[in-house]
Amino acid sequence: MNYPETRKTLLAKIISGDEVSWKEFYDRYIPVIAFVGKLYNFSDADCDDLVQNTIKNIMSKGYTRMQVFGAKCISCCVGATIMFVVVELAAALIGTGMYGFGQTLDGDFWGVLATQYVANMANVLLCIAICAKFRKIGTSIMGIIFLPDVVAMVLALADGIWKTSVSQYWFTAFLNETAMLHWTFNSVLRECLLGSAIYLPVFCSLGLSFFKKREL
Predict the structure, then answer these.
(1) Is there a contact between 129 and 206 (Cβ–Cβ < 8 Å)?
(2) For position 100, what pLDDT does the model report?
(3) Which residues contact 192 (CB under 8 A, 6 or more apart)?
(4) In the chain, alpha helices (H)
(5) Secondary structure (DSSP) of 136-156
(6) Handedness of CA 38, 40, 46, 52 (dihedral sign)
(7) For residue 54, what pLDDT is reported?
(8) Domain spans of the chain?
(9) What is the pLDDT of residue 215?
(10) Cβ 108 vs Cβ 185: under 8 Å
(11) What is the C-alpha to C-alpha distance for residues 39 and 214, in angstroms, rounded to an integer?
């Protein structure tokens, strides 16, 4: 296969957002990128991923590693927030329509809801950090499923050996507490809210340290 000559002016126009240049780039280079994937025995799906990643790398030129990671975090958190709202509304509708629960128990409803939200956002940022570390989809999914529970088990084992209570401050314990729906905003939920808020910058910093902006 004949490789087309790379023109820096074309790449510069693409970065500036010129649509005509994008079409020219697609016509000239996308078949070449896919052909290179085939040389390495990539499957069709992997070749598509290679093409998409190459395009994303070109589009991310000019942005810092922190800017790219920040955009990923914001998009994930916005999506998780939408899902959180949908789930809460669905739970309210199902509870009212099917079980006749028309009102909450006495307690701070919004305080409990805020605790659930912050704990879930901490979970989202940890998932982002795990994906930034492993990169590959399969490995990342396995890490998201098992790593938090492995840490929880190690901390529980440490509690049993040294008679401590460290495991109750791991964020999965906060998620378990908020899932029990204690509508009274007691000291346990206050600890969950504070602990989850502390984990937010910790997991975000961890993800940023793992994240590598891949260039062409």
Answers:
(1) yes
(2) 59
(3) 115, 119, 174, 177, 178
(4) 8-16, 19-39, 44-59, 65-99, 109-134, 137-162, 171-179, 187-210
(5) SHHHHHHHHHHHHHHHHHHHH
(6) negative
(7) 79
(8) 8-59, 65-210
(9) 45
(10) yes
(11) 21
Pairwise CA distance, residues 197 & 195, whole Å: 5
- CA dist 45 and 151 (Å) reads 34
User: Could you identify the residue written with the tokens 């649509």?
Assistant: 19
- 177: which 2 tokens? 């507490």
Give the tokens for residue 1: 């296969």
Place of tokens 């994937």: 37
pTM of this structure? 0.71
Q: In terms of C-beta density within 10 A (0-12 exposed, 13-18 middle, 19 or more buried), how is residue 178 classed?
A: buried
132 and 147 Cβ atoms separated by less than 8 Å? no
Kindly give the parts of the chain with pLDDT less than 50: 215-216
Residues in the chain: 216
The Cα diameter of the chain in Å comes to: 73
Compute the C-alpha angle 83/87/89, nearest 5°.
120
Contacts of 53 (CB under 8 A, 6+ apart): 214
As given in the structure block, the two tokens for residue 43 are 């499957």
